[in-house]
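debug: dumping io for the single-chain case to check the tokenizer round-trip. Nothing else runs in this session.
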Amino acid sequence: MLQSEIQLLAESLPRRPGILGKERFFNAAVLIPLLEGDGEMHFLFQKRAPHIRQGGEVCFPGGEYEPEVDRVCEETALREAEEELGISRERINILGRMDTLVSPRGITVDSFPALLDIRDLEELSPDTWEVERVFSLPVSWFEANEPETYWLQMEIQPSYTNEEGKRIDLLPVEALGLPRRYASTWEGLKHRVSIYHSPQEVIWGLTAELIREILGHISHIRNAG
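debug: decoded output
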């Protein structure tokens, strides 16, 4: 490689490194809605309607990033919040962007904490096709109540048996001349699962992880002050 090519390579490298191969993941964006109530800040949640994917679970508004529709992930979060909560984006004040969360299932989540310009949940008009109900909980409740923590053992499977009982090699280890130990299932990393048993609903999974991250930021600010 010539010196000129080295220079071009250096100039082409990202100034703000992201996630390598992010386009191969399922990319989602969510809004983390905050609102004032009873003299303190609340998280706003929605419970998914029972007939849709992951029905009955609690989450923040959001959905899949669609590059043909949205220029950036922030627009995905705003669009989904408008559709699901029935609120105009003029009443959504995005505070910033958190680090990208990457799940072991191959999902990336770009999240945007935002202050909603509402005083009461009655000001919202949720889409009843997607949302069963909305509710809020004080941020202080999560600060006072640690989540339960569990760990899942992830596995990597180089092959599987299909419905006809035939073995399907996803990675033909022997044919490729790879070490034989990779022909059998091998262990991946352990994955943390956080669960909050709130007064309203069980809140867990990616939503709980985002809450933990927000609380970490709040704690850092208070300690720094």
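debug: round-trip ok. The domain at 25-141 is CATH 3.90.79.10 (Nucleoside Triphosphate Pyrophosphohydrolase).
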